[in-house]
Each structure stands twice: as structure tokens, then as C-alpha cells.
């Protein structure tokens, strides 16, 4: 008689074999039992764009939720399972999700990856001497650091919505009409938002359209709507940057005084202490916190993309007026 351990071992082996036969490689890329596509968006703003196009036709999961900082996110084991089971994975691109390639690989996922910024002309540092101001980079060099915060220009979000729509239609043709109708309606709302930001900016005197924020997240906003970035507390596209040196802080305070910036802004995803200190030293107001890299919690005035952008323009115009 064989020892009982051997029986258990062969039972495990048999079970594994049955699972492998029942779920050959690639089985998880088929729609779930509900018949709906399983879709992932890497962060909350992107999740809202996808939700507006997909509606209830897909099972949508967002990895980095409201108030979450995608730059510094550390995936948890549950993320591996979510990514493994997905059919479609919408990602920001432009270096925002530094952790995604490893997560995708570790999960063994067969999900199709869709970079929603693929049609955006990225911005990057304009050069020495103007570190916080950005210009379009027509053909980025491999490894060149680009600004990932494309959604701060509503025109870019419209282009992302078109990419999302086309990917959903291709992956799930049975619901093509739903995705197309939802996208058309949402694109109209986005155009209205864009018009609102332009109109509200026009109410500000040109010499007051100046921004100082916590990290360098508003380059696309500034470039499209005609603001100048006078500096950022963390002089980086990422919140992972080290705190500024005393010398860098002094230079920023001087720039704020010399350029006549009326107010500076903290961000929802970061602590306001650094901005508070700089404002105190420069003798300027602190504006309401801007939604930079994530939606706000459900029920807040930034719990959708339309609302967060509406909050931001109102906060900017009110503090700089
Ligand atoms: Zn950021």
C-alpha cells in the first residue's frame, strides 16, 4: 500500500492536469461568464473615461483608485489576479505607470494592452533655463522623459476617448453601437468642458495666468489654455522626486515674488506642507487643492473627470483673479 502522501500528490497532479486541459493558455482572454468583457484601467481618471464609453457593457476594474498616486503605486497581489483575468487593459502610457510592465509579466496575462495616449503629441522639458515650461516633442528619443499628465488638456482626453472607443468596438463588436453612441455623447460633454475652460481663462488678465503647483503636472493645461508654469515645488514630472534643496526653494520663492504670481496651489494627491511653506516665505495666497493625478473620493467635487477639471478651473480663476 502506498503512503497517503503519494495519493495526495497524485491527486494534486491530476487536478492540475484537469485545470490545464479545461483552461488552455489564452482561455482567460475570452469574455467572462457574464458574457461581458473584463476590462482594466490603470488609474481613476482613465477609469472614468473608459466608464463613460463602456457604460455597463463591460466589467471594469480600476487599479489605482481615487486620491491614489500612480507615480508611487505599489501593486498588491490582488492586482495580479485582476490583470490575469482581464481581456483588455487600458493604460496611460508616457511613463506614468512605471510598475505596469512587471505586473503584467508576473500575472501571465493575455490581456490586450491599449495605450490611450497613443494619439497625443507629448510634451517634454523645453530646455535649460526654463525647466518647468514644456514644449511638444514630435519624435521622442528612446528613454526621453515625457510629461505623462496629458488629461490636463481636454483635447487630449477627447483623443483618448476615441482610442478607447475603437479598442472596445474591435474587442466586442456585438456592442459596437453602444460604445459608439456613448462615446459620441461624452465627446460632446468634453467639448463643452474645453469651451468652459477657455471662456473662464479669458476672464483672467493675461499677466495673472501663472501657475505654481506641487509637482510638474500642469504642463498640458498651461500649454493649451495659455498659462505660464513659473515653477513647481518638486521640480519633476513625478511625485517620486526628492524634496527640493534649500537653494532650490529659495530660487522658487524669488521667482514667485519677481513674476508676481498671486497664488500657488497644492494638489489632491499630495500633502500641502511644502506649498504652505513656500507660500508663507513668498508672501502669497494658497489656492484650493487641484486634482492633478487622480479623481477625488465618491461624493467629492472631483469624483468624475468632468467635475475635477471644472473644480480646477474654478479654483485657478478664483485664486489668481
Ligand atoms: Zn503626476
Which class best fits the helix and strand makeup?
Answer: alpha/beta
- Averaged pLDDT: 89
Radius of gyration: 23 Å
The N- and C-terminal alpha carbons lie at a distance of 88 Å
Question: How do the strands line up in the largest sheet?
Answer: 2-1-3-4
Order of helices and strands: HEHEHEHEEEHHEHEHEHEH
Low-confidence stretches: 1-28
What is the strand tally?
A: 10
Q: What is the CATH domain class of the largest domain?
A: Alpha Beta
CATH topology of the largest domain: Rossmann fold
Give a verbal description of the structure:
The chain is of the alpha/beta class and 321 residues long. It has 2 domains: 6-193, 3-Layer(aba) Sandwich (Rossmann fold), CATH 3.40.50.1980; 204-320, Rossmann fold (3-Layer(aba) Sandwich), CATH 3.40.50. The protein is built from 10 helices and 10 strands. The chain has helices at residues 4-22, 44-54, 77-85, 100-107, 154-171, 176-202, 219-225, 246-259, 273-282, 305-320, and strands spanning 37-43, 58-64, 88-91, 112-115, 123-125, 134-136, 210-215, 228-234, 263-264, 285-286. Strands 2-1-3-4 form a 4-stranded parallel beta sheet, sandwiched between helices. Helix 2 (44-54) packs across helix 5, helix 5 (154-171) packs antiparallel against helix 6 (176-202) and helix 6 (176-202) packs parallel to helix 10 (305-320). Residues 1-28 have low confidence and may be disordered. The protein binds zinc ion (ZN). Zinc ion binds at residues 71, 149, 215, 217, 239, 292-293.
